[in-house]
C-alpha cells in the first residue's frame, strides 16, 4: 500500500513540474485538428469516390 501512495505522490509532484498549455493554445490546437481532420476526410472521400467509379467502369458495372 505504501508503494501505491508513494507512486501517487510522485505522480502529483511530476504533474506540478509540467507546463500546461493556455486556454487559447488549447482552443487553437483543437480548431487546427478539426480543420486537418475535415481536409483529410474530404481527400479520402474524393479518392474513394474516384476509385469506385474507375473500378465500376473496369468491372463493367454502371
TrEMBL record:
Protein location: Cell membrane; Membrane
Coiled coil stretches, renumbered: none
Gene Ontology CC, one term: plasma membrane
Assigned keywords, A-Z: Cell membrane, Membrane, Protein transport, Translocation, Transmembrane, Transmembrane helix, Transport
Superkingdom assignment: Bacteria
Keyword Transmembrane helix tagged: yes
Membrane-topology annotation of the record: Single-pass membrane protein
Principal localisation: membrane
Any one GO molecular-function label of the UniProt entry: protein transmembrane transporter activity
GO biological process: one example: protein targeting
Bilayer-crossing regions: 26-47
Entry keyword Transmembrane helix: yes
Pfam families: SecE
Family: Belongs to the SecE/SEC61-gamma family.
Subunit structure: Component of the Sec protein translocase complex. Heterotrimer consisting of SecY, SecE and SecG subunits. The heterotrimers can form oligomers, although 1 heterotrimer is thought to be able to translocate proteins. Interacts with the ribosome. Interacts with SecDF, and other proteins may be involved. Interacts with SecA.
Protein's job: Essential subunit of the Sec protein translocation channel SecYEG. Clamps together the 2 halves of SecY. May contact the channel plug during translocation.
Name under which the protein is recorded: Protein translocase subunit SecE
Phylogenetic lineage: Bacteria, Pseudomonadati, Elusimicrobiota, Elusimicrobia, Elusimicrobiales
Amino acid at each position: 500500500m505504501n508503494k501505491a501512495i508513494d507512486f501517487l505522490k510522485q505522480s502529483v509532484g511530476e504533474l506540478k513540474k509540467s507546463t500546461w498549455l493556455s486556454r487559447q493554445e488549447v482552443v487553437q490546437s483543437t480548431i487546427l485538428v478539426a480543420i486537418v481532420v475535415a481536409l483529410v476526410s474530404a481527400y479520402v472521400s474524393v479518392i474513394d469516390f474516384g476509385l469506385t467509379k474507375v473500378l465500376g467502369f473496369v468491372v463493367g458495372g454502371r
